Amino acid sequence: MLRNLCMLLLLSIFIQQANAQQRSCDLILQGIIVDGSNKPLAGAAIRLSTDKSIYHTDRNGRFNINRLCPGEVEMQINSLGYEEVKRKVMLPANEEIRVQLQISEMHVQDVQVTGIQTEHITSSRHLIKGETKQEFRAKPLAEMLSQIAGVNQLNTGSSISKPVINGLHSNRVLILNHGVRQEGQQWGAEHAPEIDPFTADQLEVIKGAEGVRYGADALGGVIISTANPIHRDKIAGRVDLLGQSNGRGGVANLRLEGGVSSIANLGWRIQASGKKMGNLRTADYYMGNTGVEELNVSGMLQYDFGKHDVELYYSHFGTDLGIFYGAHVSTVEDIRTNIERGRPSTDYDFSYAIGSPRQRVDHDLAKIKWNYAISGETSLETQFASQSNRRKEFDLRRVLADDVPMADMNLSTQTLNVTLKHGHHRIGVDGMLQINNNVPGTGTTPIIPNFDNHNLGIFAITQHHWGKFHGELGARYDYHYFDVAGYRYDYSNIDENGVVRQYLLTDRRDFHNWSGSAGLAYHASSNWTIKSNIGLAWRAPSANELYSDGLHHGSGTYEVGDPNLKSERGLKWVNSMLFKNERIALTTDLYAQYIQNYIYATPNPDSVRQTIRGTFPVFNYRQHDAFFYGVDVQLDWNIAPRFTYALKGSLVRARDLDNNSYFPFIPADRLQHSIKWQYGEPTENYIRLAQTFVDRQRRFDPATDYTNPPPSYQLFHLYGSAQLPIKNNRIQCNLGVENIFNVLYKDYMDRMRYFTHQMGRNITLGFTYQF
């Protein structure tokens, strides 16, 4: 009996110990992975010696591994572009694990170009430097991006600009605003992107044809605007204040972020910015009605719980833009006289007032993004976004009041993106529903009709890595359904009073096509990397290219579309060579692109259109096969311990293969270089002298323009930066003098060059306080 009791007691103790051991295998290992600058590394891979699973850090660089047993465990941490780290941890751990990864020399070029992301390992990708963002933070987005070699601007006067990548712009350049494909009335040459640069912590440009990853239209390249993860440890923020002499205006920005103590893993961010400028001035005269007013707000919430990450984002962009008075004239003789004179016939004074003609644009964007870590390297990412773009264009009215818009367009867009990721492979489905409505009551016939646009795409991308070689392959199929209803003029049917009759236009079009991409990156040595990427992309013609027949008030032009246009198909090949050592960083991009059925608007010098509101130059949409090719060079050279020389140059050539001629509005040869002297300890203390040289566009067709391209010009600029101590923090101060010698010049890429010059000398002074 005693023996049985002893056996029962021993068995009870054994079971209790086993249960205790089982219960103890429920430990949690938490931590954060950062880079050499203490910035979180998203997507870093973590392997444990106790199992075969692979864990990944979230967007904040954090990881949370459950169901671990007591004892010693070895962690192996890897991230592309960084040295591998191994660390032993004794569980249970009393505090959060923090691991810092150092840049790998073998992949230093990819780290410089792509940061912590690995999606474009074979593409030509360029990041805007923090120094450039500080100097240009009050400028339009396109002007900031033009500091990258190969990126230019298409201007409408000195206050409206669109980015141009390797000669292509508008609908051929996609912009991702916080992960959402920006959808506004981007078909207009004077419709600037509705994005506040202050919302972007990183601005990147990809020069390849990225039709697979981002869908149709990405023939020229992609611009990516992203924000850093929210820091939840404390209340942090920044204040930006900047004033400028030309326009006698300024810009202000405020941003705050933090966490919620009562709700773990919840972060918030709010931001607001405003701008006000008056009439801008050339070297000799004021440009009447060129003021700008802008007010923008945005907010973000990020919440992580277990395997789920949720992000909510909202932004509102609102602006009033004046359109130069001199572009709107009354008679044929006036327009020809103004083009021949090349400058306004009227003297204007400085004013903050914005009168007609002008634009009022409001763009709202809202998104919800959910990322679910299924297991190991597998995750599912879903994003829904809604955008509303309201564009009003005002002109001088003879019948209705001037505050009634001549054009009132409301574009609403809903997008849904679902992507399944497994390691370096991903498949996804994208859908878009877009509706454009012309709001009635304008008293005019809209330049573009009402339309519904339905898009559906499916894609797959895979990456492979073999030592020094990295490859990427992708394919995509897109289907577009386009349904329009509106009015067009019938110039063969004019009544006895000389009024052109109209007819009801209804049309349905289907567009569908394949896209593909293939790329290879080779790390020849610790200093040299060679990349080659070839991409096939396509674009359906937009509503204005097909159906426009009327006055485009914002640009002061009369546009005529062609309903028989076909889809564009472009094949772009980009070859990049990157060199970097302790003193020199050199990037060279060689590219060539064949575009079948290239669509473009060309001035018709033999025709102007006289309306009740004045007389305007006519632009017709045409279509021919095109061949683009060129080279971009970017060099940074530390010539001495405190002196740095920088050079950026770009050449682009574009040929009309059908007519053996040239296309209009292709950037001329451009060269920028600067010398910077760094003084004091912080790298933010410097003085930089820069020169910009733009050659005359010598490759043009005189039969497709109103006047010859303007002469070449060169400008000199001076920039200075200093960090000023204040209590336990610092204020960064930036001073700039642009166009030091107040040169009177015109730029070929300015659609107002027929009537006016570019902006003259401008002095800027800005302060940034971060806390």
UniProtKB/TrEMBL annotation:
Residues 1-20 form the signal peptide. It is found in: Cell outer membrane. SUPFAM superfamilies: Carboxypeptidase regulatory domain-like, Porins. Its main location: membrane. Gene3D superfamilies: Carboxypeptidase-like, regulatory domain, TonB-dependent receptor, beta-barrel domain, TonB-dependent receptor, plug domain. It is a multi-pass membrane protein. Residues 121-222 form the TonB-dependent receptor plug domain. Keywords: Cell outer membrane, Membrane, Receptor, Signal, TonB box, Transmembrane, Transmembrane beta strand, Transport. Belongs to the TonB-dependent receptor family. This is TonB-dependent receptor. It holds the Pfam family Plug. The keyword Metal-binding does not apply. It comes from Sphingobacterium corticis. Residues 318-740 form the TonB-dependent receptor-like beta-barrel domain. It comes from the Bacteria.
